[in-house]
Every structure is written in structure tokens, then in C-alpha cells.
Amino acid sequence: MELISEHACFGGTQGFYRHASAEIGLPMRFSVFQPPQARSGPVPVLFYLAGLTCTEETFMVKAAAQRYAAQHGIMLVAPDTSPRDTGIAGVDAGWDFGNGAGFYLDATQAPWAAHFRMYSYILHELRQTIVREFPAQAGNIGIFGHSMGGHGALVLALRNPEVFRSVSAFAPIAAPSLCPWGQKAFGNYLGPDQAAWQDYDATQLMLNLPQPFPQEILIDQGLGDKFLAEQLLPEQFEAACAQAGQKLTLRRHAAYDHGYYFISTVIEDHLAFHRRILNAQT
Fold it and tell me: Which of 72, 115, 151, 258 is an active site residue?
């Protein structure tokens, strides 16, 4: 693991790292904020998954989350949003697919299957790296994300409730099988058989869960979001939660758009939400 840069931040440390990923087969970057409490022993961990076009830096620079993570004693971890420098033809042809758009799944279709394995990378390799290399509580991990990353956070938590104790999202792609972004990504990464898409669709997962996610789910959505009607479809996930008996708080905010001005407005609530659940685990 290579330290790229390190910065003092709210009494803790903000670091940016690179490591050789066996799961991806290429170097991957990630960022970690260690709160001041981490100097005294392991702390709870909260993974953040960013949206389309973003990197491991976006959340740490724009969300203003470190202040609240320092107050609550929570470590923040943000991976890059896709493999880089894959050599795949057309990987950078569009902003909503390929580079910066890994969709937090394990691709099964050539040529993507060789490197686009973000689901397993986060669930296994990156999580194990964080627990091994940082003062992290291995059994006390939450996850949240924005847009494509909100989709990823919901999917990872719903499929692995024994790993991720808490989950929330900002303007997630809540029913990717039904929207253009998701259909483009799933069709190329997973192939035309839509039955294979269900494992990475939070709405479908919720409908098929043997039992609800153990904790409440928190989602914030801006009503001024230009992607709301066509791409995000939170009402689909809301209806699935109602059918499944899942406790969900879906807050709708007039005027707010899809960007980090919105995220930074509600980030304090999300850190407090995760702190409440993760502290209950200790």
C-alpha cells in the first residue's frame, strides 16, 4: 500500500492511498479519514461510494463530512468509482459508462469482466485492507453513497447485512433495471439476460429478501434533481420497502439538486444516523 498524500484535518488525518488490487488486477486508489479517536484504538468504519465521473477524492473534498466524522469517532473510507487504465477500447467513450462508472458490480461480459469487479473489491479486498492497515473495528462497518454510489451502497448492504450494519443514500439510482443509466450499465457489464440484473437492483433485492434489512434505511432526495424522474426512481424502492415491511425514512427536499451542495447540507444527519447504529454495536 502506497501513501500518496496525507493532511491534518479536524484533529484527525486525511490520507490518499494506492495499492495493487488482486481483485481488479490493476492499481486502485482510495481515501481514508482517520478521526482523532483512532489514535486511541479501533473505531467504527463508514464506507462511502461516489457517483458517476467521481474519484476517491470527490467526497473527501466536497462533502464536508470530516468535521462530523471527527465528532462521532467514525473512520471514513472512499474508493475510486471504477478501475483505471484498463486498456479496454471505448472505456472512456461516455461519462455514464466505463471509466468512473463501475456501478459497484462484478461484470460477467467481455471485455469488462477482467477488471470491472467493484462489488467484490469493496466487499472483500478493500474492506480487508482497511481492517488490516488501519485502526478499524472489523465488525462495525456501515456504508452509504450518492447516485450510482447510493445504488452500490444499498445493494452491498442488502446482500451482506452481516458485514454492513448500517446503510443510507443520497439520491440513489434506486431501480437501475428501469432507468437508462442502469440499463446501459447492466446490459454491457452483465449481458442481456435481465434475470442476472436483479442481484444488483436494490428494488428487486428488497422485493426478494427473505427478511428486511435489520436496521432502518435512510435516503435523502432533492426535488430539484434533474435526474429524479427518469434515472433515480426512489418511489420504486419506497414501494418495495412498504411491501417487504422494511423500515425506511425517505426524505424529499424541495429545490435541492443532484450535487454536493445538497449532500453537504444533509451530511451531518447521515453521520449521526450511522453513529447511532454503529455505536449500538459496540
Answer: 258
137 near 42, Cβ under 8 Å? yes
The residues that bridge with 94 in the sheet, in sequence order, are 97
One-letter amino acid at 121 equals: Y
What size, in residues, is the chain?
Answer: 282
Q: Look up the pTM and report it.
A: 0.97
Q: Are 264 and 146 in contact (CB under 8 A)?
A: no
Question: Catalytic: 257?
Answer: no
Peptide bond into 35 cis (omega under 30): no
**pLDDT tens digits, one per residue of 168-209:** 999 999 999 999 999 999 999 999 999 999 999 999 999 999
Tell me the pLDDT tens digit for each residue of 203-219.
999 999 999 999 999 99
- Residue 120 annotated as catalytic: no
DSSP 8-class letter at 55: -
Of 17, 19, 22, 21, whose CA–CA distance to 7 is shortest? 17
* Cell numbers describing residue 77: 473510507
